[in-house]
Automatic annotation (TrEMBL):
Keyword Ubl conjugation: no
Species of provenance: Thalassorhabdomicrobium marinisediminis
Stored PROSITE patterns: ABC_TM2
Domain of life: Bacteria
One Pfam family it belongs to: ABC2_membrane
Transmembrane segments: 34-57, 69-88, 117-145, 151-174, 181-202, 238-259
Family designation: Belongs to the ABC-2 integral membrane protein family.
Locations listed in the record: Cell inner membrane; Membrane
Highest classification ranks of the organism: Bacteria, Pseudomonadati, Pseudomonadota, Alphaproteobacteria, Rhodobacterales
Keyword Membrane part of the UniProt annotation: yes
Domain ABC transmembrane type-2: 33-262
GO cellular component assignments: ATP-binding cassette (ABC) transporter complex
Protein keywords: Cell membrane, Membrane, Transmembrane, Transmembrane helix, Transport
InterPro entries associated with the record: ABC-2_transport_permease, ABC2_TM, ABC2_TM_bact-type, ABC_2_transport
Protein name: Transport permease protein
Amino acid sequence: MSEQKQMGVRRFGAVNWLGTYTLIRREVLRFMNVWSQTIMGPLVNAGLFLLIFTIAIGPRRGDVMGVPFMEFLAPGILTMTVIQNAFANTSSSLASAKVGGNIVDTLMPPLSAAELLVGYLGGAVARGLIVAAAITLGAVVFIGMPVEHPIWALTFVVLGSIVMGGLGMIGGIFANKFDQLSAMTNFIITPLAFLSGTFYSIDALPPLLRTLSHWNPFFYIIDGVRFGTIGVSDSNPWLGLGVILFTAAIVLGIVWRWLKIGYRLKT
């Protein structure tokens, strides 16, 4: 068989499906091989958040937006955990490859920029879904959290994982050492996640902070998952869907361009 025919078989037309699947599988196995850190660690943290809030203020806190406080809180903690893990999955993978000097192993195979993008995002979405499923199960069993609109909840979990996976790729590509990546996590990702309605309704904020919250894409991810689970939200879920899709288009466009030209990867 000629080289051209072999390439045609491998790519199944214009897309290298086998290569893309292999990259997704590598990314999934990478975090599953250390599941105690990548899966159990975030689950324990989420459980501790819920436990501490339950003990500290749960019994004395009234309803929020017409639902018990713990039911209101659980979707926020769920989403915060999902987006942090999606970001960590892609950023750590790329940063480790760059620092370790083996990024060439990913760049040399016949994968286009779009295929690389899908491969890395596949791992981020898989990790986000596993974490989301585990926390949802725990919240349903232990605090009685409902799941009013599962399709909406799943949609925002997946889109949130995609956006945060893309931001993680931006961080991983841009950072040349782990200190730079840690700075992005500590001073950008974590504050935006905490200040986006995770623990409160933005209606309780002063007008200026409430307006600023509406410019925070993380708010719409958390608010969308909250609508999908407990059926209430601070904003229209369709508006949130539009904002997240627009944000995803910008983030993924940047990542695709950087992968295509090899920005901070081939030098």
